[in-house]
Specification:
Blueprint (H helix, E strand, L loop, with lengths): L11 E3 L5 E4 L2 E4 L5 E4 L3 E4 L22
Antiparallel strand pairs: 1-2, 2-5, 3-4
C-alpha cells in the first residue's frame, strides 16, 4: 500500500468557467465538517456553488441558450 511519501499524486484539472476535475476515488470534506465520497474514475467538483448536487457538479453553471 502506498504511503504519503511514495504515493502517486492525484491529478486535479481546473476547467475555465467549469468544475474542478479530480481523479477518483475521492473523499471531500465540506465546510460544515461532513464528508462525501465518490468512487468514480474522475469526479467533477463544483466550483461555482450553483449545483443542485453540490459539492458535485451537475453543469448548472452553464448558461441556458434559447434558439
Amino acid at each position: 500500500m502506498p504511503t504519503a511519501s511514495n504515493a502517486e499524486p492525484r491529478r486535479v484539472t481546473i476547467e475555465q468557467g467549469g468544475p474542478v476535475l479530480v481523479e477518483g476515488p475521492v473523499e471531500l470534506r465540506l465546510p460544515d465538517g461532513s464528508t462525501v465520497t465518490s468512487d468514480r474514475f474522475v469526479v467533477a467538483v463544483c466550483a461555482c456553488r450553483r449545483s443542485k448536487r453540490f459539492p458535485f457538479c451537475d453543469t448548472s453553471h452553464r448558461k441556458k441558450v434559447r434558439g
